[in-house]
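Most newcomers find our protein records easier to grasp once they have seen one. The structure tokens are whole numbers drawn from a learned vocabulary of backbone shapes. The record below serves as our worked example for the rest of this section.
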Amino acid sequence: MSDTEGDPRHLETLDRDLARFSNVELAALYVSRPMVSTGIALIFVVMAGLAAALFFGQANNSVIVVVAACLGAYMALNIGANDVANNMGPAVGANALTMGGAIAIAVVFESAGALLAGGDVVSTVAKGIIAPESMGTANAFIWAMMAALLSAALWINLATWIGAPVSTTHSVVGGVMGSGIAAVGFAAVNWPTMSKIAASWVISPVLGGAVAALFLALIKSRIIYREDKIAAARVWVPVLVGVMAGSFASYLALKGLNKVIKIEIYTTLLIGLGIGLVTWAVMIPLIRRQSEGLENRNKSLKVLFGIPLIVSAALLSFAHGANDVANAVGPLAAIVQASGTGNFTEAVSIPTWVMVMGAFGISFGLFLFGPKLIRLVGGQITKLNPMRAYCVALSAAITVIVASWLGLPVSSTHIAVGGVFGVGFFREWDAERRIRKAKVAMPDRARFAPEERRRRKLVRRSHFMTVIAAWVITVPAAATLSAVIFFGIQSVAG
């Protein structure tokens, strides 16, 4: 043993060297993690193409189906990375679910919704935006759908990268519109349908935000601002859970059961009313038992909203899987049908293998790339707790029911994120109102610098402006990109 080996200075140098190695390893892991995720995603896309080749290897236009399957898999990955965050973000931001728990629940319920309740819901996407018969030939229709699929996937990928939750359906709609205009001209577009979709840019977030703010106002006035918060919670929490159960029952009946048998909106409302009343009656003794021994403070109330919030997030994921995923893979289903039969003017139904690929794709996309937007929606726009997040989830279900009843087109993405904004802006308004009412802190507040006053806002304006801008340009951006891709495909295919 040398003399230097026992020297404390030698040991300190060794510790510093080891620390440097540790930092290098951490840096390498940080850099390689996105590469690993991208590699796994690429393998999934290739596997989807190989599966399509296996099923359609002997069929006509098999190369087209294989390419379309790869594009559909890429699209499904982007749905998982972007769209699903809107359902899980509030629960994660409120600490009702861990990131791992949220991803696990979303994977199960999104897949279940897509496979069990996802049906023939692609008529608007594949047929309602452009008139298929105006395309002239099956090949022109196939190129248009392929351009739409790729442009929508690329746009959602870009939006995820910059941290903006956008509507998957609107991206696909923009893609179909752009390729249709490129193929035939502006006359091919169903402009009344497009005007309804454009109206949903405003209707969806405003309705979602307003409903979420109203429920938060109810919770604050009837529970949080009461002297005996626990006693008030015993009365109102069962009511709120009953409203949630009834809303989701109507929502799922409207989006799922309606695909099996034709039911009117009034029937779905009656189903929701019955289930809501039963749930309310069951929850009264459960909440009373759960609230025993809780301290009379706001922190205790979070316990009572935790489980309902988790259940609502799971139900939202199921409903999203049943509806939005099917819409997103609609162009792929249209390509498969047109390639196999040559018929591109009849109604499109989604083959089972397309739905399975979509379900697996959203699961991989959520697992590999979803955490970024889950964090954004759940905690970076405004601070959420279980009560506020519960209002967002409840708003999403109720707004879809109301909009369907009124015949208004809405986007589930815009509703959920609009609910988060609505909760945040209501908190800002309520805080200002309470300050004015109490007549305290006004002179001090007036002395704040403009930068400090902006910093104290409860909704981050930078995220607000980014999201709004992304919403506004989604359809035109996807349409422009789709038109460029269509011309590229047409020039290559001859």
User: Anything to note?
Assistant: The chain has one domain: 38-493. Residues 24-32 have pLDDT under 50 and may be disordered. The radius of gyration is 25 Å.
